[in-house]
Fold this sequence. Notes:
Number of helices: 11
CATH architecture of the largest domain: Alpha-Beta Barrel
CATH topology of the largest domain: TIM Barrel
CATH superfamily of the largest domain: Glycosidases
Oligomer: single chain
Shape: globular
Mean pLDDT: 90
Low-confidence stretches: 1-27, 360-365
Strand content: 15-25%
Structural class: alpha/beta
CATH class of the largest domain: Alpha Beta
Largest sheet: 8 strands, antiparallel
Number of strands: 22
Radius of gyration: 23 Å
Amino acid sequence: MRRRLAPGILLAIVLALLAAAALRRHGPAPVPMPRGPAHAALLGAPRTLPAGFLGINGEAIIGPGVWTNPVFLSTVAALHPQAIRVFGGTPANFWDWRAGTYVRSRRVPSSLSALRDHIQMTLADWAQLVRVSGATPVFDLNLFTSDLRSQLAMLRAAQALGMPITHVELGNELYLPQYASQFGDGADYGRVATRWIAAITHAFPGALVAADAYPGRDSNTSTVDRRELRWNGEMLSTVRGEAALSLHAYFASGLGPSASLDSPAAAERMLGAPGRRWVALARVIARLPPTVGIWLTEWNLFDTVARVHGTWAQGLAVAAFGLDLLSAPRVVQADYETLADSAPFGAIFGSTDGLQLSTGGGGGPATFRAVIAHAPATPLFGLATGGVAMQALLDAVAGATFVRPITFRSAAIQGIGVAGKLGFGAVIVNLSDKPFVISVPQLLRKLPYTESWAPPITLVAGAASLHSQTGTTATTFGLQPFSLLRIGA
């Protein structure tokens, strides 16, 4: 004889099934908050946020047609980057702005020359990208395979297309050994840079020009050339008129090839990497002249050993390092690496196989290890893990004129408060596997919020890969483990 289930038992089964479905879709359900006093929020000293502070590097120039696709353009516009680095990093040293591709020269690396006939990104295309996003262009000039006359002509043509000439960077990582044929040492570069600075500021009064500085050894670097170590001192002995020095900051996870982010210890180690890199970088910055600004025109996780790229842990690491940059008064411009690419760096997926990384490792500087053998497809022009983090940061600083660090009793929680024409807001990350109850400063109460979280090993194929919740802030707030919280309109 079939027995009828009591209504209470039936309801419990239904709720359990719904919870299991939610777990499959979004990862873990919200965890209960601990009892006890909330972690007090301490507000640090405010700083004025410079115009065009937080941007994205236009590094991976992929094509054809990606950068001019209307859907791609609308995705970039929705990110609200405050700056876009025009011509990117390494590509800038080999870029023919008239042809919209790489120069024809034996100096061009084979990895780039192989793409020459498949890329067409005109100056008008760059102008359209800058215009629809409302970003400040940061022009990275070609000092290696071009000349001053041609680059001045490019800036004039860019200005005629509506791009303001306010931020100009003199080359990309020219301290590396492969550029020694053009610049024997930092002093040689400083003398050339001085001539370019004088010409650029004469042609475009008020333009800020940054010279290329060595950022110090990062955790991905096995050896450092003597030329690199001596670069800054030699360059500073001859360069004159620079408004800023540009640096790049990459950090590895600190994990070995067999480590898994399923391990709380491994996740903790990786999520401490941004802070470790910032401490080392701050020492480099402290040795640079205090009269010039610091531009970090490239920064991200860069790891060819561990299986970490494309994971939510990378997104949290990006958010944490971005908060460090926003809190640093010496840093006046910062560009995430990079705008459109696959999972290692891209904020926006440029294809549907953005998580299909190499399963090798150790094969070269561009070889990355996949987290799993068969990663899910990625949404074309959807947000990658770094894009999700950058979306929260860029939304927070949109219209902001002041930022203010927020610290808590636990070092696992980082935050920044913002104030501007759109009101008050904040971004807070919990880098721990533990939930926390935090106190909410008075100015951040009764504001809308979005919180996203997932296990660190989660592969992010768009924001839908994460669990999220929305609501309105109160006196206290319960932070989920491994979460990113955005407060404000």
